[in-house]
Amino acid sequence: MHNAHISALNAKHSHLDKRIAAESQRPLPDQILLAQLKKAKLRVKEEMQR
Q1: For 12-46, how does the pLDDT look when each residue is reduced to its tens digit (9 = 90+)?
Q2: Rounded CA gap, 32 and 38, in Å?
Q3: What domain of life (predicted)?
Q4: CB-based contacts of 23: which residues, under 8 Å, 6+ apart?
Q5: How many structural domains compose the chain?
Q6: Residue 1, pLDDT score
């Protein structure tokens, strides 16, 4: 069960990373959305480290 939780967190982290990259590539990236995505990614990373 623990491994499944870590795998799910890794997948979520990867998905957030891809969304951040995609938003950053736009001509006028939404800075508020980028900040929200980065905070979510950080929360997932902190959860993985526990």
Answers
A1: 999 999 999 999 999 999 999 999 999 999 999 99
A2: 10
A3: Bacteria
A4: 29, 30, 33, 34, 37
A5: 1
A6: 61
